[in-house]
Amino acid sequence: MRWIVIMLCALMGPAIAQEHWGGNEQVWCEGTGFGINFEPCFGLDSNEIFLSYLSPNDPDPWQRGFRLLRANYADEEPMERLFPESLSVFGYNDISPFLSYDKDRLYFASDRPGGFGGYDLYYCDCSGGVWTGPINLDSNINSLADEFDISLSGDEGEMYFVRGTRSDYSNNIGSIYRSAFVDSQWVLAESLGLGINTPYGESNPVISRDGDKLYLISRRPYFDYPQSAWISRRHQNEWDAPMPLGGFINYFWEEAPGMVEGAPVSIAVDSSGLSLLYCKLELFMQYDPEACCYLSYLDTGVEDDFISNPVDIRLVAYPNPFNGATVISYEGVPGGGHLYIYDITGRLARTLALADDQGSVAWNATGDRGEAVSSGIYFAEVVDKWNSTKSRIKLLYLK
């Protein structure tokens, strides 16, 4: 009997806790006809950010391309060019800035000539207030595909980035890759594989300074969101299945037909791990979209196994683990709603309607088309009809 308990504990893994961010101070908001590239990062001081910008003040801005700029949002100072003109290439784009945690090296992506293909990853060093470079990160990192959205650990021993397709500023999709710095060079990058990457596409990986957390933007199914922000924690040197972030960053709603707000498109974490800088895209179907940047702070007092508002909805599944069917009972779902069941990769397996604010539904380990699902860990998530109250539990299906 004891070995069965040990096996189940190993399969269930560590307790999965959601990370909640509060505050949500709007730093700035700007239309995207001309403007930001959605990917600001923290700058050299607490009020400074670096970003990629297409300035309407430049002659023929669309021909000139995106430039890396700095902005001080606290004093509302005008944005200034980060690099001298000699480090930019007319007609090409510099995007996806990431400043190392010790603030002496800036990484970015560029489609300038001389690379290995598409967007490549580069870096510049800062010495005495002067930027050197840029230097290409070589063929162990760059390829014929597009590389972008780079992030490094605090000791610069690990690098994470996206390899995929960068078709424009609002359609960045691909898979997350990792490389390690060994014997004074970056080893050949490898995909993080299923669990972190999905067929839907990931972007904007950010590893925390201590290397224990990996933040990312994903298009994996999560209610009706076009994309959302997630976190994975390292356990025994492996990344756990991601969980969606709690707080306004993943709060998404439709104000009226054709007017949708709230999809996060980028994320950045400061060196302390306590401040979060992110952009959300507000889509107005008949108007130009806007990108709004927000600053949030880690709420260490709100960290639990729920998506949000854990007091209102109560969930229990029995039996769990199960090998045929399980009954999921719920209470406190205003107006009814839906029960969503996801596999460990975040892929939606089954949707069940909830007619009342309390009751129970049975799940017989089949998908929406009646197909049998594989054994393993699943998550049952209840959402009310207004997408305002949510709760989640873990299920273990054993054949």
Task: Report what the structure shows.
By secondary structure, this protein is mainly beta. The protein has two domains: 2-13 and 307-397, Sandwich (Immunoglobulin-like), CATH 2.60.40; 20-298, Glycosyl hydrolase domain, family 43 (Tachylectin-2, Chain A). The chain contains two helices and 32 strands. The chain has helices spanning 2-12, 61-64, and strands spanning 20-31, 41-42, 48-53, 67-72, 80-81, 94-99, 105-110, 120-127, 130-131, 135-136, 146-152, 158-166, 172-182, 185-186, 190-191, 202-207, 213-218, 228-235, 238-239, 243-244, 246-247, 253-256, 259-269, 275-284, 290-298, 314-318, 326-331, 337-343, 348-354, 359-363, 376-384, 390-397. A six-stranded mixed sheet has the order 21-1-25-24-23-22, with no helix packed on it. The relative contact order is 0.13. Residues 1-16 and 302-311 have low confidence and may be disordered.
The gist of it:
The chain has 399 residues and is mainly β. The chain has two helices and 32 strands.
Record keyword descriptors for this entry:
Immunoglobulin-like; 48% strand; Tachylectin-2, Chain A; disordered N terminus
